[in-house]
Structure formats: structure tokens, C-alpha cells
Specification:
The chain has five domains: about 170 residues, Arp2/3 complex 21 kDa subunit ARPC3; about 45 residues; about 110 residues, no CATH class; about 35 residues, no CATH class; about 45 residues, no CATH class. Helix content is about 65%, strand content about 5%.
Length: about 425
Amino acid sequence: MFQTLRQRTIGTTLMAGWTLAGLFLASRLPLLGAVLMALAGLPAFLVGFAWGGVWFVIYGFLTLGLTGWFNGTGAAVLLIPLVMIPAGVLASLLKARLLPMRALGLTLLLATLISTALWGVLPLLGEGGTQLWGIKNHLVAQKEVFAGQIREFQKQNGTDSQSAELLLEHTKVWIDFLILLVPVTFIFAWHLISLGVFYAGGVLMASRLGLGLGLAVEPLPSFPTWRFGWNLIWLFVGGWLMFYGADMFEPASIQDLFRSIGANCLAISKILYFIVGLSIVFFYFDTYKISPPNRIGLSFLALLLTNLLVWLGIIDVWADFRAPKLRRPRNPAATGTTTRTHSSNKPIRRSNNANTLDQRYRPRWQKGRLPEGYRRLRPKFSFSPQLGCSLYPRIPKESQAGRGFLETQGIEGKGSRQTDG
């Protein structure tokens, strides 16, 4: 399927038609616009990954040309940073055999930086480029509308004015924070969704049409094992300091700049730590064998506690909740090892087999098990009539185990005397 030149040409044309249909549906269904637009960009990833750069360029020219014809130049240029560049970069990194998580992370970073840089020149590209700028103006207008609705509700129902003002103040703070996130965090969230759709769609298409399209997409690691580098914590800490410490700087323009940068760093790091916290929840689902119905209910409950999941992901940087736990065996005899204590209070591990006694504490003359009641001490010079002066450990004279041990060595138990060398 789609292997010959003629078949690939037809396939590329169909992929371009798929993208145009997705863009049309995204403009008619605003609530599903992000997902539909990501699905519209899926053919760009499939063509670039399966058929290479030449066919990706052909698909790009065809798609951008038709989009500019129907929707204007601004809409066509808008597709380059939002769809074409991320799809091409992700396909190139995966074809270079980079690990999927690393490829997605690098693509997400590069696409966010490029899209943010192009944000400033979008109004110069026509009406299509000014639509994104309308997001910030829409949020500002909604803040005033919401304030008017709260005051009207308070007048009609005679509610407490202090409660109404408190609710209005919190709402304004929240909307002001959202305004600071335009455009960087909004662009980051869009690319996070679109790249997820690209990769999930690529894996699904590879399982269905992999041989026909030439796809061989490596699946991502299991979700309960997802984690990011510990250096991400500095993004969170730096954003927190810049956002809440902006008032320490002068003039006001510097304060606004620091507050905007800090808000975006906080929001992006919280999104990533939310994913980590959710993966920890799924890890415990697998650990304790939670049934599927209970998983669904607990997952919805966890989504309502977003801040809790964020802090769970942050604490995991130090706590490492998914680290393997070393369990000590309940029955030491089952492992063939026991623990004894030397006179220096250092633990000595030896096997139950006397022939494998730890050589560091095993005397040269010791061939079998130690006598019962024997106390291990540092070797001392001792004297016996039969062996003369030699190295022996101290053995209590009155101990029955000690006398038995000397007799096994051919030494008279009562006649031996020990002196310090």
C-alpha cells in the first residue's frame, strides 16, 4: 500500500485532504478545536516518518497552498509553527533512533520556542494571524463581564457584600494569572496535546498499516514509570521566586516582565509535575492490583485534586515513591546466611557452611565449625608443651567446648596454659 511512486502520490494527496478536512472541522467545533487540529496535523508526521523528507516537503507545499487559497495567507503561515515544524522535527528525531521520550521532549521545547518567537509577527500576516492575539483581549473582556455578573447577582439576592467582593477579588487574580500565560503556556499546552496525538496516532497506524506505510514506531514506556529529570525542579523554584518576588524590582515594567516569566515557568512546571503525580497514582494502582472500575473512579477523583497531584510529583523528586524496596528475608536459613557480631561490634556475615567462613576473620588453623560457646577474640601468642610457641586465639580453660577443641587438636586440655606473647 502506497509503495510505488503513483501510490505515494495519491497517498500524499489524500493526506493533504485529511489535513484540510480537520482544519475545517476545527473551525466549526471550537470546543474540540485543539484535538481536531492535532488530528489534522497527524498526516504530516506520518508522511515525514514513513516516506522521508522529500514527500514531507511535497505534502507541506500542497497543504499550505490549499490552506492559503481557502483561508488566507495568515492561516497558512500559522500552520508552519503549529503543525509542520513539530511533525517534521519529531519524525526526524525518531528516524535517528532517539528514545521516544527524549525525542518528544526535544520537539516540545523546540516547537514552543519557535512558536513563541513567531507570535510577535503574526499580526503582520493578515486576519488569520490576529486571531491568536484575540485570546488575551477575550480574557480581559471576560474579567469585566464576570465582575458585572457578580455585582448584579449580589444586588438581586441581597447576599453579603464582603463575600461577593472576596469572590470577585479571587476571580480577578485567577484571570490576571491566565492573562500572563498568553502566549507561552498556551502554546506549550497546544504542542503537548498535538505531539501526544501525533505519536499515539503513529503507534496506532503502525499497528494497523505499519507494513503498508513503512511505519515502525516504538511505543512509549509504561505510564506508571514516567518521570522527568530532577533538574525540572529548578524551573519551578525559579518561576516561584520570579513571580512572587517581582515587587522587589523597579521600575514597573521590570516587575511585569519578571511576573510574566515567573508565571509561565510555574505553569509549565506544574503541568509536567501533574503528569508525574498522575503516573505515581497509576503506579500504586498496579502495585495494589486495583480493579478497573475502582481505577476509573479514583482517576476522576484525582483529576479534581490537581494541586495534590502537582505536589505529589514535586515531592517525588526527593522521596522517589517508585524506588524498589529491599526486603530482608524472614527466614535467614532459607538464604544460607547468618549474621554474627565481632568483638569490634562490626557485623560478620558467614554462610551456614563452615567451609565458606569469611576469610578475613577465619584463623588459618580453623578447618571446621567453631566449638559451641567459643568466643572470637583477637589472636594472641600462647604456649603449649606439644606445639611450642604459636598463634592461637584465647580459649577459656574452664570451658568444656574449649577443652574439647584442644583435645581434637591433640593437646592436653588441662595441661595447656596460655600466656600472652
